[in-house]
DNA sequence: AGTTTCGGTCAACGCACGTATAATGAACGG
DNA sequence: CCGTTCATTATACGTGCGTTGACCGAAACT
């Protein structure tokens, strides 16, 4: 009667656990991204994941720990090259984020703004990313340029996904990236005295 | 014994009231800017203003209302002109914000990200500002350009004052503005087919 | 003067949250 | 088949918050 291809075996305890754990993490990510750290409640996350609130505590120990686990994201590297290449790489990075709307990085971003303490780890990660970006930009003010580039990327993401303001909220990634290319090329030091 | 020029008259009730009210509003602005909407507590604001918590309620009725009153800010107009002039005007606007670190606009910005409901009014204001900016930018994609410009301004402010990340946190306004000039000129449509 | 108005304090309520702990029942290992 | 483990639930505790209403005392008014 039931599907033949189905294993139909009841999931093992380990599978079960992994399953609910990721369901909780996904729900948490969504909530942190949409509501920020403070307004995200453990009970609501649990409900969205279809489990009891106590379980979230049992698995993650505390809200802060849940946040850390939910908002972990792979560091994005940007290779060295000519200014235009660096600009291109950064724009590709931005495009990727615009295309798949990375819930995790939104969770970090929004939560860094709502509860800096909770996002202390991510400050460190952001600083590292800045340093790395600085290293591939020429000029004496590379540090500032990197910082501004970072600010623009975050600004665009914030306005599109968090504030949902203006055309940036619905424009195609390609339009946005194309519009920003001259900006990025200027900031990565295209007309810099080497 | 006391200063001769001092009126030394005890302040009238109306003066008294206005005084404490503005003290409360200032304290609220600072708190909203630094902590965001959620983490700002009425009691803390009251304490910072040197009054009792109940009084804040008495004067403003609710936390939301306090926020609305505290975060009111004058709309900033940007005059029409050539693309380079518009860019210049926008940069001046940014410079002003970088120089006097406008607590009010930070309060709005941070709170729009922490509690969108509370900042509904300010969304409307932001939309109006965007429309106005769109009107002075040439080209068919003026709307998107305006939105991106707005995103950059907010991104820079967020990174400098809210995240305090990288060199943007301590660089001089002039440096920042100079660095962004080419960006803004490109976005205001300097090389646009009219 | 007496009375009203009103800036301001104080103590309390109700609620929602993070968290802790005990209990349940099914999977697991022998 | 029995004891253990462990995923999961139910319940309760403590706290801090927004909000309320009663109260006090001095200014304002007549």
From TrEMBL, chains A, B:
The name this protein goes by in its record: TetR family transcriptional regulator
Gene Ontology terms for molecular function: DNA-binding transcription factor activity; transcription cis-regulatory region binding
Pfam families: TetR_C_16, TetR_N
InterPro entries given in the database record: Homeodomain-like_sf (IPR009057), HTH-type_TetR-like_transc_reg (IPR050109), HTH_TetR (IPR001647), Tet_transcr_reg_TetR-rel_C_sf (IPR036271), TetR_C_16 (IPR041678)
Keywords, comma-separated and alphabetical: DNA-binding, Transcription, Transcription regulation
Comp. bias (Basic and acidic residues): 7-20
Region annotated Disordered, chain positions: 1-20
Gene3D superfamilies the UniProt entry points to: Homeodomain-like, Tetracycline Repressor, domain 2
């Amino acid at each position: 009667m039931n599907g033949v291809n189905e294993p139909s075996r009841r999931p093992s305890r380990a599978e079960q656990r992994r399953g609910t754990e990721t369901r909780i993490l996904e729900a948490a990510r969504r909530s942190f991204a949409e509501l920020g750290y403070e307004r995200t409640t453990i009970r609501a996350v649990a409900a969205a994941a279809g489990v009891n609130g106590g379980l979230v505590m049992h698995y993650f120990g505390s809200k802060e720990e849940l946040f850390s686990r939910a908002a972990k994201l792979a560091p994005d590297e940007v290779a060295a090259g000519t200014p235009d290449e660096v600009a291109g790489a950064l724009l590709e990075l931005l495009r990727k984020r615009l295309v798949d709307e990375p819930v995790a990085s939104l969770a970090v971003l929004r939560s860094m703004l709502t509860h800096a303490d909770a996002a202390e780890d991510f400050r460190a990660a952001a600083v590292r990313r800045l340093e790395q970006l600085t290293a591939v930009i020429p000029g004496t003010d590379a540090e500032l340029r990197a910082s501004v580039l970072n600010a623009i990327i975050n600004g665009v993401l914030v306005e599109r996904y968090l504030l949902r303001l203006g055309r940036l909220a619905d424009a195609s990634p390609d339009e946005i990236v194309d519009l920003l290319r001259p900006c990025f090329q200027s900031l990565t030091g295209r007309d810099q005295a080497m």
